[in-house]
Amino acid sequence: MSTTPDFKFFKLSNIAEYVVHVEINRADRLNTFTRAMWLELEAVYQRLSYDPDVRVVVMSGMGDRGFSAGLDVHEATTTGILREDAGLDPGRKANRIRRDVDELQRCVGAIERCEKPVICVLHGLSIGFALDIATSCDVRICTSDVTLAVKEVDIGLAADIGVLNRLPKIIGSSTWIKDICYSARNFGADEALREGLISLVAADKPAALELAFCMAKLWAAKSPVAVQGTKELLNHSRENSVTNSLRYTKVWNAAYVQSQDVGTAVMSSLRREKPVFSKL
């Protein structure tokens, strides 16, 4: 980052050239999310998306106890999204809830919309809203002691912020997805790795972060035109047919293949040199 922005609930730091570490900063409350936090989450990723000094983001939660225990239930049920609206008729109450859910979906979706790839590092308690965040990221790494759960059924509702929509795009087994979502049961690193939700498992949080930083540095050394274009095309293909995706890819590369990065990469390969790519 050219300058380190001042956010209340997120700590941002440069850990290597073009690599930024985003830490959820509410460890005293197990990094549970309030409305102010998810609005700030959107602002964080909007800033990182357009910052030419950022190519890869690593996201984790501060503290030893967990990445996040989900939503701050006290706020949600008193003044937040799950509050009672005395005096409102059902139509108006439904409209208020729809707008609140739309805001939450938009804020979490900012991670997925970020032009830069995002690596999520999960440790300890990582339940509920934590998986909405994690499934919006490009790659997930966890610790061996992680506790994961799609927890919404246990508070009497169907998850509505993105995990039910993104999990089937990440994992091939609909049976396993239905099991963990219907039961709201806890599951761990080995099960998440076996089913494809997690890419790598580390012994502890420092080791997991080191894996993420190594991965991020490798990606950040590549052409930003190529990496960011690959993210865009992969996300587009997830939502569209092969035919439509190929057509979109044609148009995309018709523009971006003209980048100087192609020549830089080819010549560096021929010379057996490490390529250096300019900012995007």
CATH topology of the largest domain: 2-enoyl-CoA Hydratase, Chain A, domain 1
Give the SSE string. Answer: EEHEHHEEHEEHHHEHHHH
- Taking all Cα atoms into account, the compactness measure Rg is 20 Å
Domain unit count: 2
Question: Which regions have little confidence, pLDDT < 50, spanning 5+ residues?
Answer: none
N-C termini distance: 13 Å
Q: Mean of the pLDDT scores?
A: 95
Number of strands: 8
Biggest β-sheet: strands ordered side by side in the sheet: 1-2-3-4-6-8
Kindly estimate the percentage of residues that lie in beta strands according to DSSP: 5-15%
Name the overall outline. globular
The CATH architecture of the largest domain can be given as: Alpha-Beta Complex
Q: Tell me about the biggest sheet? A: 6 strands, mixed
What does this structure look like?
This protein is an alpha/beta fold and 280 residues long. Helices cover 49% and strands 14% of the residues. The chain has 11 helices and 8 strands. It has helices spanning 35-50, 73-78, 90-113, 129-134, 163-170, 174-183, 189-195, 205-220, 224-239, 242-256, 260-271, and strands at residues 10-16, 19-24, 56-61, 118-122, 125-127, 139-143, 147-149, 200-202. The longest helix is centred in the middle third of the chain and has 24 residues, at 90-113.
